[in-house]
Amino acid sequence: MGLDEYGGGQEPASDVLVVTTNDVPGYRVQEVLGEVFGLTVRSRHLGSQIGAGLKSMIGGELKGLTKTLVQTRNQAMERLVAQARARGANGVLMFRFDVAEAADVGTEVCAYGTAVVLARE
Prior knowledge:
With 121 residues, the chain is of the alpha+beta class. The protein has a single domain, classed as Translation Initiation Factor IF3, CATH 3.30.110.70. It is 31% helix and 38% strand. It contains two helices and four strands. The protein starts with 16 loop residues before the first strand and ends with a strand. It holds the Pfam family YbjQ_1.
C-alpha cells in the first residue's frame, strides 16, 4: 500500500467491495448476511502524548498521531473485510467508522457495516 503525506493510501483491490452507500449501481443484493465489524484499540506511548500536548499549545497537525490513527483505521477495516469474507460476503454496505476513547488509555476504532452477497444485474 502506498502512503500519502498523511500516512494513508489506496487499499489494495479486494474480493469484498466496501461502500458507504445502501446499494451499488449495477448490482443487486442477493442475500443479507448481517452486521460485521472490525475492532482495534491502540494506546499512545508517553512520548507521543507529551509531543501532542506541546504541539496543541502552539497549533498544527499532530503528524505522529495522524499516522497512528490511519494505521488503526486500516487495521479495523482489514478485520471487517476478513469477517465479511468468512461469512461468505462479497460486499459490505453502509460502511462506517466509530471512534471513541478507551478507558483513558487509548483510542478504540470500530469499522462496521452490513455484509451482503452482491450479484451483477
